[in-house]
Amino acid sequence: MSPKDVARLYALGRVGFGVAALAAPAALGRPWMGAVADKPGGQVAIRALGVRDLVLGAIAAHVLDRGPVAARAAQACAVADAIDLAATLGARRSLPATAYGVAAIAATGAATGFWLSRAL
C-alpha cells in the first residue's frame, strides 16, 4: 500500500469518525469520558471533536493530490491527535480505564499522520 493510499484511508477514517461522533456522541464518548458522555455537556465536547475530525479529514482527502499541501494536512491531523493524547493522559486519573484505549488510538493516529507528513 502506498503512502497516498494510507493517506486516503486516514482521511476517510477521520471523516467517518466525525460523522459517527455527531450522530452518536454518547456511544463514542463513553469509552473516553465515561458517564460524562451521557450528559449534554459531554455530548457538546464529543460533537465538537466530531466536527473537527470531519473537517480535518475532508480537507486531507481534498488535497491528497497536492503534494506538499497533503503532507501539511496530514501533519495538522497528527498534531490534533497528539493533543488529544496529551489531554487524555493529563486527565487519566479522572477518566475510566477504557480511556487508555482511546489514548492508544490517538497515539496511533498521531504517529500515522506524522509518518504521512514525511512520506507524501
Question: What general form does the structure show?
Answer: globular
Distance, first to last CA? 13 Å
**Number of domain modules:** 1
Order of helices and strands: HHHHH
Mean pLDDT: 97
Give the amount of beta strand, in percent: under 5%
Q: How big is the Rg?
A: 14 Å
Q: Helicity level, as a percent range? A: over 70%
Major β-sheet profile: none
Helix segment count? 5
Structural class: mainly alpha
Strand tally: 0
List segments where confidence is low: pLDDT < 50 over at least 5 consecutive residues: none
Please sum up the structure shown.
The chain has 120 residues and is an all-alpha fold.
List descriptors:
mainly alpha, 120 residues, 81% helix, 5 helices
Protein architecture, described:
- The protein has 120 residues and is mainly alpha-helical.
- The protein has one domain (3-119).
- It has helices at residues 3-23, 25-33, 40-62, 68-90, 99-119.
- Helix 1 packs antiparallel against helix 3, helix 2 (25-33) packs across helix 3 and helix 3 (40-62) runs antiparallel to helix 4.
- The model has no long low-confidence stretch (mean pLDDT 97).
